Predict the structure.
Amino acid sequence: MKSLKQGLRGLQLSDNAQRLYLQSFQVGKSTIGRLASELSMDRSSAYLAVQQLNDLGLMKEDTIDGVRRVIASPPNAVERLLKKRGETLASFAEDIRKDEPTLLTDYKAKDQQVILQSFSGRESLRRITDDILSSPIMEVRIFTNQNAERKVFSANEHDDFILSRVRKGIQAYVLASDTKGAHLLQKYDDRELRETKIIKELRPIKNETYIYADKVAVLGFSNTIFGFIVQDKEFAELQKMLFDHYFHSK
């Protein structure tokens, strides 16, 4: 019974609804008046509690010979409702994660001047690419070493980001180390909404840098996989200026 009581509290039922459900659960089919009397509850409060339980599918009723009787639904009804609530809450949490760039921008305006997010492990790539794709941008600048990246992240992860970026119409400008992977990337520039410049003197770096909106994201994959995003307008503008100077001078 303890688990059932905890479940009812978790559904945020009114105290009267919880008491009435448990009483009906124990005595079986009964009139609302009798349940109210057993609980020393006034009838109007009992009817409101029954209505709340009915709305959630936690109470059934029938009328025989003009007498209305009710009975609590079995415990699996409470279980199903809790699971549904859990799924809904998980969905809300995921929506907040996806909206995090915009939410953090609003938060920054009220409190902070610079925002730093850091990640570790393989999730780093997804967190950074999700942030890029959810930002209101038309272009992204990227420093990359394709050979090193392909050793750490799968072709599917790499290609999914490109496809999503193209669907959103985000143009990519890329400065790449001189590797076979970079030449393959450049081959499909037109199809993948990208302009890639291969820099022979750019040594094969073991990280990637993404510059977009007022953010700079770095994805590292030398000894360990890590990532971070710095949100600061002046810092991002400086990185854009340096990137563009190098990009247009080649």
Q: What stands out?
A: The longest helix spans residues 75-98. The domain at 2-92 is CATH 1.10.10.10 (Arc Repressor Mutant, subunit A). The chain has two domains: 2-92, 99-248.
